[in-house]
Specification:
The structure is a single chain. By secondary structure, the chain is α+β, with helices and mostly antiparallel strands. The protein has a domain at 3-44: Rubrerythrin, domain 2, CATH 2.20.28. The chain has one helix at residues 44-51, and strands at residues 3-8, 14-18, 38-41. The protein starts with a strand and ends in a 14-residue tail after the last helix.
Length: 65
């Protein structure tokens, strides 16, 4: 089950939630104010890894030998 990141449109609270992929489109309840108007966000990990995919292994290369 993936972890989705949300932001409440009523109070601005950001929160993470484990949600089955089949329910990813369903609005989630904000744990802070209880509103059911949370918007799913693109995680910073997904945004970073998508833009820097070509450099991902550069720091992990073996040295010496």
């Amino acid at each position: 089950m993936p972890i989705y990141e949300y932001r409440c449109e009523q109070c601005g609270e950001r929160f993470d939630k484990l949600v089955p992929m089949s329910q990813a489109h369903v609005s989630q309840r904000c744990p802070s104010c209880g509103a059911e108007r949370a918007r799913k966000l693109m995680s910073s990990f997904a945004a970073t890894s998508a833009s820097g995919a070509g450099d991902a292994g550069a720091d992990c290369a073996p040295t010496g030998g």
